[in-house]
Amino acid sequence: MTLGRMTRAIVTWSICAMILAGCVQAVPPDLVAAIDAIDHDLIAMRAPEAAPEEYGHFVRQWISLKTRVQSDDDLIRWPWETNDLEDALRRLHDEGGSTVARLNDRQVSQRHTAEAKLARLEARLQVIASQVESIDGRIVLGETPVQTDLLIKQARSFIEQKDYERSIQASEKANHALLALTTVLTRELGRYADDKRIAHWQTMAKQTVDWSRAHQSAAIVVSKAERMLTLYKNGRKVLSYPVRLGFNGIREKQFQGDGATPEGRYRVTAKRGQGKTQYYRALALDYPNAEDQRRFTLAKKSGRIASVNSIGGQIEIHGVENELMAQTLGCIMLDNPHMATLFERVTPGTPVTIVGALTGQNSVALALAQLGNREEET
Amino acid sequence: MKTRQTLAPLALAVLLVTGCAKPPAEQIEAAEKAVKEAQQSGAATYTAQEYAKLEGALAALKKEVGDQDGKFALLRDYGKAEQLAASAKADGERVKTEATKKKEETKVAALQAQQVAQDAVKSTLDLVAKAPVGKDRAALEAIKNDAEALKSSLNQVQIALDKEDFPTAQAQAQAIHDKSQAVSAEIQNALAKVGKGKPSPSKKK
């Protein structure tokens, strides 16, 4: 081989090598891998369920471009050639990256919203529960507290599953249930915050005290909201004892078995000493009196009370039968030493006036006011 | 020679006519049907990512057909569209199977949760029923109220199941189960206290 031929061969190979080295693949594999990674990120963020439109938009472009990538796989381009596929992939990469960032921000914000809503609800339910417990109003609310609690539990469970949208929905339902709770409480117990009703109760109590003074006799006033029994003698207060009421005692008695403690003017009809009552000592009252009968008949006629219900009876002021008994079925219960003292100081015929409350600042009105304030806060 | 001259344009015409490719209508229809069936099987809910990709594949297929339709008749090539259609059809069928399976699994899990919740509520109600009549009924009355609320909440689970909203049904059932256990514990405490007293005669109140 002459020097000239060798030189020509070297030049030819050099040109070929330069040409080959200058050629590029149609699409850089790392770009494809990066978009694939974005797809995985979106899936991990539950984008298909949480943001189906955005994910759908991304995935439609991705599949379309992937199809082109596969068909252009064996193509080699000159570096100076324009590559619209690569450009489209880069655009999708950027868009996908923005979608990931946007969804991430949205998820963080949704999580915060869901957690904050739930925390507020849990706190409010706790406040309502403790307020209701303090006024023995649990029965008043019926099934709503359990339903609310179940919704709150569901909201918590959806947060654990990172399903913030469902959690927020459950929280909103729970919020409505809580509003319903406060509405029921206000409707059922609003009379404890009603100035006219309180004035009426105060008048009833005053008349009882006046009667005691006028007749130089004993008289009893029971305030349900204050859970207090006061004995007057000759118009003067001689003792005050805490009492326990029916399991639904805060309500006005309507029919037998409702657990409510009646309100009205009664008299002691009999004194039941040891062996005559299961409750240590008992003072029988004349419930139902004529006024109770009238109210009951009217309520039945108007359909507020079912026709199968009867008015009930055997309401007493009694001592404790079982030390662990926290509430009665509608009677007024005192601790045994207090009952012993009271028992000695009253006679059959002693007036007993039972009222809802004696002041506007009673426990039920305060609880209702507090619930109203909390409602405004949320 | 004359015959050849006559046949040449005819052959060209035949070539032109047969050379014009047509879109694979049947395959496209089959692919669309498969995607629709996947959607009807609940794929958008139970295999959301697979379904989104399936929709993407269908869109890519339509684009490819559109691209080919836009070309000069002699240059049209629907080979790639055929491939895409076949692939979308196969994927559609696979996604449908997967979605059906996943849906069934979710349903089974929700039904199991419902059964567990029903059992829990039943044992709570049994505990309430065990409470001695007339014996500090007051203490149990509020709890009884809660047990009744749990019983009626079971209907909500059934409603969610009927709507095939299995995740909600499962979450509801789980919540009922948890609450039932709490209520049962409360009843047991109350019963433990009540058990110490002597039975009371039935009284009007």
Short note summarizing the structure:
The complex is a heterodimer of chains A (378) and B (205). Chain A is an alpha+beta fold and 378 residues long.
How many individual β-strands of chain A? 10
Radius of gyration of chain B: 34 Å
Helix and strand pattern of chain A = HEHHHEHHHHEEEEEHEEHEH
Gap from first CA to last CA of chain B: 124 Å
Uncertain stretches of 5 or more adjacent residues of chain A: none
Total domains of chain A = 3
As a whole number of angstroms, the C-alpha radius of gyration of chain A is: 40 Å
Give the topology string of chain B: H per helix, E per strand.
HHHHHHH
Overall SS class of chain B? mainly alpha
SS summary, helix count of chain A: 11
Name the helicity range of chain B.
over 70%
Mean pLDDT of chain B: 84
Shape of chain B: rod-shaped
Average pLDDT, all residues of chain A: 87
Q: Strand percentage of chain A, roughly? A: 5-15%
- Main β-sheet description of chain A: 8 strands, mixed
Number of helices of chain B: 7
Strands in their spatial order, largest beta sheet of chain A: 5-4-3-10-6-7-8-9
What this model shows, in words?
The complex is a heterodimer of chains A (378) and B (205). Chain A is an alpha+beta fold and 378 residues long. Chain A has eleven helices and ten strands. The termini of chain A are far apart. The mean pLDDT of chain A is 87. Chain B is mostly helical. Chain B has helices spanning 2-19, 25-40, 43-46, 48-69, 79-130, 137-162, 166-194. The termini of chain B are far apart. The mean pLDDT of chain B is 84. At the A-B interface, helix 4 and helix 6 of A face helix 4, helix 6 and helix 7 of B.
What keyword list fits this structure?
A: 378 residues, L,D-transpeptidase catalytic domain-like, 8-stranded mixed β-sheet, two-stranded antiparallel ribbon, 56% helix, B: 205 residues, mainly alpha, 2 domains, 7 helices, 0% strand
Layout of helices and strands:
The complex is a heterodimer of chains A (378) and B (205).
Chain A: H1 3-22, E1 24-25, H2 29-44, H3 47-50, H4 52-71, E2 76-77, H5 84-134, H6 144-160, H7 164-189, H8 195-215, E3 218-223, E4 228-233, E5 236-242, E6 264-272, E7 282-285, H9 290-301, E8 316-318, E9 332-333, H10 336-345, E10 351-355, H11 363-377
Parallel strand pairs in A: 3-10, 8-9
Antiparallel strand pairs in A: 1-2, 3-4, 4-5, 6-7, 6-10, 7-8
Helix pairs in contact in A: 2-4, 2-5, 4-5, 5-6, 5-7, 5-11, 6-7, 7-11
Chain B: H1 2-19, H2 25-40, H3 43-46, H4 48-69, H5 79-130, H6 137-162, H7 166-194
Helix pairs in contact in B: 2-4, 2-5, 4-5, 5-6, 5-7, 6-7
